[in-house]
Design goal:
The structure is a single chain. This protein has 389 residues and is an alpha/beta fold. The chain has two domains: 13-38 and 287-388, Alpha-Beta Complex (Aspartate Aminotransferase, domain 1), CATH 3.90.1150; 46-283, Aspartate Aminotransferase, domain 2 (3-Layer(aba) Sandwich). 43% of the residues lie in helices and 15% in strands. The chain is built from 14 helices and 13 strands. The protein has helices spanning 9-12, 18-29, 46-58, 72-86, 92-95, 101-113, 128-136, 154-159, 183-196, 253-266, 272-283, 287-308, 336-347, 373-388, and strands at residues 33-34, 96-99, 119-124, 140-145, 165-171, 199-203, 229-234, 247-251, 314-316, 324-329, 349-350, 352-353, 364-368. A seven-stranded mixed beta sheet has the order 2-8-7-6-5-3-4, sandwiched between helices. The longest helix has 22 residues, at 287-308. The structure holds pyridoxal-5'-phosphate (PLP). Pyridoxal-5'-phosphate (PLP) is lined by residues 38, 101-103, 127, 171, 175, 203, 205, 234, 236, 242, 247.
Amino acid sequence: MAMGMSFSRRVGRIRISETKLMPMIAAEVGGCVSLGQGVPSFPTPEHVVDAVCRALREDGAAGKYSLQPGMPALREAVAELLTREKGLRVDPRAEVAITVGAMEALLCAVLSLVEEGDEVLMPSPAYASHVEQVLLAGGVPVPVPAGPGWGLDVAALEAAVTPRTRAILFCNPCNPTGAVFGEAELRGLAGVAERHGLYVITDETYDALVYDGPMPMSVAALPELAGRCVLVNSFSKRFALTGWRVGYAWASAPIMDQMLKVHDCTAICAPTVAQHAALAALRGPQEVFAAMRTALAARRELACARLDALAGALSYVRPAGAFYIMARTLFTGEPSRQLAERLIREARVITIPGSTFGAAGEGHLRLSYGAGEAELEEAFDRISRWMLA
Ligand SMILES: Cc1ncc(COP(=O)(O)O)c(C=O)c1O
């Protein structure tokens, strides 16, 4: 640190996720292919591009701030979606905010609900940014190791509750494991929250990307969580709009009133042009998004087949959703951080060290199958050659 400079304890507690650092190391090394980042490879669909161009040409307001909680038409479309797909009764004016990605919605929720010293239970391995956000808020992340097959261990969740526990924060489907929690697990989680008066923050960023059945139910639909649940979602994955930075939150009006204060002093509003993109994605033709999901399902098969061919060296639980696989590294006892860096430097393949997602992830690499098939094949070819060398 430079002489005389000091920073807040708050930022001293957090770090940039290795999900972002690995591609930065790879950029220095050059020539890498990626099983790393959580980006579906698809370009922004034509009808979304057209709608944004039209808005910019015809609507003088498209280049200006929107209303602070988001464009009314988009909040209404989100409310309809939540009712149609999750059975929620939603007041778009008082309970929905459009945010700068799911990430900002999560931050608004965590900063509104978590007090200094509050414990937040997180099924683990956990999405790294969930942990960092709780730390930023001064809270204490409490990892609750997953059960067999990366399932939700409800008994362990209950056993982890203390008088300081404030909330449960989780994603379903799960990044990084690809697990999809079913109704029994979600009812179990809701029961823990109800018995102990906890808030629940449910991050449903990957809800539409499930391959073996219908969209999982939302824990937010359970009546026992009424008034104590924040649902967060994103346009990044389902609609392949990662760079547009749009997400949303649904919460009861008293919670939303607090979250909007954080939203106001972080983002003011989500970018209006990006909100037009999100609106077009929701209201326009859906076939293109269904085709993306079909492509991701095929990529899951490809990735699993390539991992099966490496069975002695890597093992995994077949993912049911999102586009990640946690591959256990049977061929080495090396720390996953070191291994991932060696893979970049020696094999020119980006993976994410499992330790990024907490102690329960150590001994694994997170592999994403968001990339196109040619890149996936090339990445697995390189890993296979590297292992044989
Ligand atoms: C579980 C989860 N939540 C939230 C996010 C952030 O999404 P957004 O791009 O909408 O900010 C991600 C991104 O990878 C994620 O995996």
